Amino acid sequence: MISLDQMLLWFELYSLQERYISVLDNDQLEAWPDLFTADGHYEIVPKENADADLPMGLIYCNSQGMMRDRIISTREANLYEPQTYRHMVSGLVITPIDPTTARMHASYAVIRTNLEGDSIIYQAGRYEDQAVNTPDGWRYRSKRAIYDTLRVPTLLAIPV
């Protein structure tokens, strides 16, 4: 039987995941770092590297500051075709570590639409996250997007 505390934890962490997706899908990238702790980690790695315990990935940020810098460079320095993301996330599993820390994992697919309105499945994979309860609510201490897709067809400018 599921307790009220377990249901509340699931709701709060599911809400964190939904805010994350909403920020990315609605081009509110400046709010993205606020979903992490100040020393939060974010990375995108291919499945082959994750399986071999190799650290190399496409994106690695080890603080909110690096995440903010990435967004500024995405907005002001990088040249890439404007695009829209739509995330599909399923299979969220939450494993409490202690009252203020939990592990989460879920499957994801990102559909990318270009200016001409052509949509493709851009990337599919899984998230492996750790979240902590802060005075401001639940935040990611780490978020790892491990993609199954064999290759990334265009510049990976926006977090997935």
Automatic annotation (TrEMBL):
The residues that cross the membrane are: none
User: Where is the SnoaL-like domain positioned along the sequence?
Assistant: 15-142
Q: Which Pfam families match?
A: SnoaL_4
Q: Which UniProt keywords apply?
A: Dioxygenase, Oxidoreductase
Name the Gene3D superfamilies on file.
Answer: 3.10.450.50
Tell me a Gene Ontology molecular-function term this record carries.
dioxygenase activity
- InterPro entries listed in its UniProt record: Anthranilate_1-2-diOase_ssu (IPR017640), NTF2-like_dom_sf (IPR032710), Rng_hydr_dOase-bsu (IPR000391), SnoaL-like (IPR037401)
* UniProt similarity note: Belongs to the bacterial ring-hydroxylating dioxygenase beta subunit family.
Protein's recorded name: Anthranilate 1,2-dioxygenase
Q: Which organism is it from?
A: Rugosibacter aromaticivorans
